[in-house]
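Appendix B. Chain record.
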Amino acid sequence: MKQKSNQITNIFIGLLLFSCPVLAQNELSMQEVMLLARKQSLDAFRSKNIFLTSFWEFQSYKSSKLPHLNWYINPVNYNRKMTVRYDYENNVDVYREQQTLSSYTGLNLSQVITVTGGTVFLESDIYRLQNFNSESANSYSSTPFRIGITQPIGAYNPYKWKKKISPLKYEKAKQEYVQSVQEINSRAVNLYFSLLLAKSRKDIAAMNVATADTLYQMGKKRFEIASIQHEELLDLELSKFNSTIELAQAEKDLEKARFNMLSFLGKESDENFEPVLPGMIDDLQIDIAHAFELAQRLNPEILGLQQKMLEAGSALEKAKRESRFNADLNLSYGLNQSSDNFSGAYRDPLDQQMAGISINVPLLDWGDAKGRRQMAYSRKQVTEIEVKQALLDFEQEVKLKVIDFNLQAKVVRSAAIADSLAQQSYEVTKKRFMLGKVDVLRLTNSMKNSQQAKENYINSLATYWRYFYEVQQYTLYDFINQQTLEEDFDMLIGNNN
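Structure tokens predicted for this chain:
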């Protein structure tokens, strides 16, 4: 029974499409418009650059975990001033002029320890000093190498939280880009059907002009033989002029819809193409439970909620750590030597050890630390409640979108049948009017019903496709090919390097 109903529906749709005039311009399907939109629209350009921003942010995070090598250099540092010196002969302090020229260069290799938040480093440097007030004018001091570690104790470790949050943010950015493609598809569908509806109204208006003129000429002949009243003839004449006005407005609306479409696609405004009325997807009914499971797994909003929870946890730990005892441990070992010549500064270097610990213990802050800790705790609780509510709202939105799509298919089939019946009814009414069996008012109502039925069919089809891409926007799943929506991010990134 269902198969027979579908066959009848397809026949009605086929008759409807067959009745449309043959297109003289280049046809452009809805799928082709969406492909153009994904390639060259401003929305696509914006989405791509938003993703690239997230990509480079993630690259920066990965780079921060790798060893960093820095070269420090201070080529010239001239100093001339009066300074206090001790006069051994007179046992007094006296002011003497001091004039020096120094230079410094060094290398530093450092590596962050993500687990502890500390830093391991390896250094090497050379320092030169020229004293213009001394007989031994030049002196050198070198540190061939020094290895050490700086380790916070009891402090907040941002690297631990970045390790959890940064990969999640990047994965969310990738899914948001895939989702943005579906948003572009949705906008392309809306503009495409706006153009399609505007063209349909223009075609109907042009047909109405011709029909109204024919009926008016017939009405004049029938008036001459007293077959219709004078007021009916005036109604036909008024309908003729109104149809001309409606055609002019329809042509204006069509050009506006065409301009909006071309502007969105980034194409020249003088390009001309004709939209093609798309059909539906054969017998596609989306399972609600399956769609929600896909949305939970793939939708970036879910990752965004996880990110909010992690960020709230990070803020709470930071507030707790900063209000407690914390210390910094510094350890290093190296070699050091000085000489009045460059080569001597590297000859027989001496051991150099350094160990130190600095401690910070908050004693009295008048409740400042406690207040910040309580605020962070309250924000975390609020975030947990917001996430729970967001998950419930998200589930409801996904399920309602799927229900809307599944039901819209029935609406489209009914609208297609209603459109076909309205067209047949109008043709029958027009023939009966020519035979003098119905009046002008009945003919006008039949024509309006026919036009309204066609618009209802196009609008229902537009809603059908809008719902489809909204479901894909939530689930990031291609229900036609039954596969996860994916993008070639390597190519996307490579094209911008």
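Further analysis of this model is presented in Appendix C.
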